[in-house]
Amino acid sequence: MKHQSSTLAVPETSAVPRHVAIIMDGNGRWATKRFLPRVAGHAKGVDAVRSIVEACAERGIEFLTLFAFSSENWRRPADEVSVLMRLFMTVLEREVGKMAANGIRLKIVGDMSRFDPKLQEMAAKAEAQTAANSRLTLTVCANYGGRWDVMQAVSKMIKDKPGHADFTEEELAPYLAMAYAPEPDLFIRTGGEQRISNFLLWQLAYSELYFTETFWPDFDAKALDLAIASYQQRERRFGRTSAQVLDQKKAS
Ligand code: IPE
Ligand code: IPE
Ligand code: MG
């Protein structure tokens, strides 16, 4: 499906965001605060994922994108990285059946080639098993980086169109890893940091940004509703004036 690009046209907007993208940050600090090992925070973070996926589906959000592991997270201590990898596998093993039954379509996006072949295989199977679902598309970004995404798209585009120059935004868009989704309406980062950390750089061009101090393991349906309420207060101008936005609202 082709989606409107926020820079080429003014996209349609609605009270409930169609696409919510979240940087799930603060697992380690959640655990440290409780004198627990950091990995306990990651485990607890999985519970939050479960409840937020369901809460999003209930609210009619069509796309939920979660940043699970960045291309820079390999810099962490080897034991934390390996625990995270095992956690991904366990989650895939335990949760995919439930997702399939609950109408969730799962997509795993990122440079998967760096993962254990077993994990790659499980991810591919999980995608296949849930491919026909349409209640909510859940994208998990793993070994994902916004710059990686743009560069892999550029490389593929150039390979497909040898001898071409002066490419357009429209030509690049289908090669981006999440070409199947509209651009995020609402971006949420938990854990208090106010930065993008190489998440969806291209796609966040006109997303509304929401930052909360709440650590990811504590982020629940109520916290999600606060983020949505904040989103609903925003005037999405996409470069236009406020008067133009109001005129358009009156006309529709
Ligand atoms: C986010 O929580 C999860 C991953 C990056 C995998 P952190 O592990 O970054 O938690 P903090 O930021 O150290 O508290
Ligand atoms: C961003 O969190 C990545 C994920 C949540 C997966 P980080 O904790 O890695 O980000 P920085 O290092 O604080 O920017
Ligand atoms: Mg962090």
Automatic annotation (TrEMBL):
One Pfam family cited in the UniProt record for this chain: Prenyltransf
Keyword entries, A-Z: Magnesium, Metal-binding, Transferase
Residues at which substrate binds: 26-30, 38, 42, 70-72, 74, 76, 189, 195-197
Keyword flag Metal-binding: yes
Catalytic residue list: D25, N73
EC number: 2.5.1.-
One GO molecular-function entry: ditrans,polycis-undecaprenyl-diphosphate synthase [(2E,6E)-farnesyl-diphosphate specific] activity
Positions bound to Mg(2+): D25, E208
Transferase among keywords: yes
Cofactor binding, per record: Binds 2 magnesium ions per subunit.
The family this protein is said to belong to: Belongs to the UPP synthase family.
Subunit and interaction comment: Homodimer.
Summary of the function given for this chain in its UniProt record: Catalyzes the condensation of isopentenyl diphosphate (IPP) with allylic pyrophosphates generating different type of terpenoids.
UniProt protein name: Isoprenyl transferase
Origin species: Herbaspirillum seropedicae (strain SmR1)
Lineage: Bacteria, Pseudomonadati, Pseudomonadota, Betaproteobacteria, Burkholderiales
